[in-house]
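To the team - zinc ion complex, inputs and output below.
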Amino acid sequence: MKDRIILAIESSCDETACAIVKNGNEILSNVVSSQINIHQKFGGVVPEVASRIHVENISLVIEEAIEKSGIAIETIDAIAVTQGPGLIGSLHVGVMAAKTLAWMLDKPLLPLHHLIGHIYANAFIDRLEFPLLALVVSGGHTELVLMRSEWEFEILGTTQDDAIGEAYDKVARVLGLPYPGGPAIDKLAKEGKPHYKLPVCKTDKPLDFSFSGLKSAVLQLIDREKRASRDLIAADVAYAFQETALNDLVQKTLMAAKQTGIRQLVVAGGVAANSRLRALLSEQIPSLETVRLTLPPLWCCTDNAAMIAAAGCVALDHVAPADLKLAATPSKELSDS
Ligand code: KG4
Ligand code: ZN
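Output:
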């Protein structure tokens, strides 16, 4: 079969990224310019600031990705871009750049869903086998997605309120840890002990999630300790939060895996980098003898364009190319893919 080369652009949040990938899993270049240092000063992503920095960086990032790939740009087969979900101003910069390139080079333009990129990041280390369940855990999403076959997505469970990564970031903030909170809590929880107890929030549907109550419970715990003039043991709070949140995630993932008879479980999104989540799944998934567990490489858990290119390679067979009227869609649904 002829090689497929995809150039992809990702700018949905605070990373400006461009990558060129061959046949869905061979990286020719992967450039990510992170804005984390700038947003850290504000304790979170400031949308206005993010879009301005994307504007400053996008051309440089694309030029660098083309140069590093060592290919002639005319040889690419398509341009893939994150159309949504994400921050409107941020997405707009990537979509405009992708439209410009598609027009200049006269190549198909593939608008993609950000979460599909996270799921296909697993293709860099493993072949995807269907039916497949994806546990998607990021700053904006907590979803159990069933794929009965290639490019078929059904949401089995979702969060009723905060996303898991958002809960990590908020709890980190009240503990005085830096943004983004996920890696900081992951590290601190390793020094923590079982000491505090936190409740798991009930949901109407058995495969849905709820994390805002857990965040409030952490706030109440901090307040209670303060009123009792007891020193707060931050590592034990991080431990209690992480164990409560992750055990709920893992338990529901196991339940969904049993119900659907899947062959493969993949984990996707920034929180897939969490060391405790990876350990819990590695311990518990082997109990389902017919399910293979795939964890994405750490470099590919947080936002990047290589994952969008990997998805783009498959999208060539499933997604109608967009015309130049394509617009960023901040609340793009998986069902529109
Ligand atoms: O996928 P991502 O880069 O952006 C979104 O699409 O949201 O995910 C970012 C999220 C942040 O909430 C961050 O705190 C979380 O992923 N994260 C982690 C870890 N590394 C990143 N959460 C828990 N443990 C980690 N090691
Ligand atoms: Zn993401």
